[in-house]
Write a structure and sequence with these properties.
Radius of gyration: 20 Å
Strand content: 25-35%
Number of helices: 10
Number of strands: 16
Distance between the termini: 32 Å
CATH architecture of the largest domain: Alpha-Beta Complex
Order of helices and strands: EEEHEEEEHHEHEHEHEHEHEHEHEE
Amino acid sequence: MKTRAAVLDGPGRLVVRDQTLRAPRRSELLIAVEAAGVMFAEVQMALGRYPGQPRFPFVPGYDLVGTVVDGPRAGQRVAAMTRHGAWAELVVRPARQVVEVPAGLAPADAVALVTNGVTAYQLLHRSARVRPGETVLVLGASGGVGTLLTQLAVAAGATVIGTASPAKHHAVRGFGATPVDYHGPGLPDRVRALAPDGVDVVLDPIGGPGFDDSWRLLAPGGRLVWYGSQSTLHATGVRFAPAIVALRKIAAWNARSRLRRDGRRASLYYVRNGTRAFRTDLATVLDEAAAGRLSSAVSARYALDQAREALTALSDGRITGKAVLEISGRGRALGAGAEDLQGV
């Protein structure tokens, strides 16, 4: 069986070509992909900088929404988190790892809620355990996860401060948060001006030099959850090194906090698919979107042949909210072939 897919042949090299796809086993589903997400993890993968990514060559694509091709579930629209492999017309996935998409929810809107939606929901409700009346600082509030975090935190009764570039402040404000410019020095002071006593929760997908500021901004009893390393995109050296540094800081902060008994704590969050919690939380966010209570914030749609353009736009900060590939082909195709991603 053949399928057309976007393949990363090596750092910076994306090729759209036919791939051999094995037949599904009895416990698996053959899915015709309708939409696949584009996220910062794939930008890092394109440069060979994502921890735990497969060896080149491989098909990227962290999540998908599509229709089951055959078997008892034929015709059913489902969503799945894949970590890689979703940027293809046909995909084989274990049946136990897919969740049915509610009727009336478009594929592009649904796929924006798979990895990003579960990440946002679990950060708030399973890791940070945000309570009504608390103040939450969302770093990167205009991004794919950040827009969902903002909406869910506001819905939970929190006061939200969201960092974003000035051009995206209107979007952050529209989701119910107070925007703060992250450019240049003085970000902690700008946050302190809005929350003089500190914030109750910081949700940080960036890490790097500003990670210490995230900890210092916590009020007594506050929680810092680190869930990404966007600041290290163009770093060199061992790709796991930034995570090791961050985990050492988390351990040291938590030890000092216990000694001081100030109630602050820091933790690492990493989304895990294939678990009952993942399937439950994905069904929850999909239902919220289908009911009109949660916006997927999809702002950029690309055909499969435009994967390079999507990655470049995301890396350059030109996308507010979520970017998706519409594998069914709606949109302006650029043509297949090798694409140089070294500029990402």
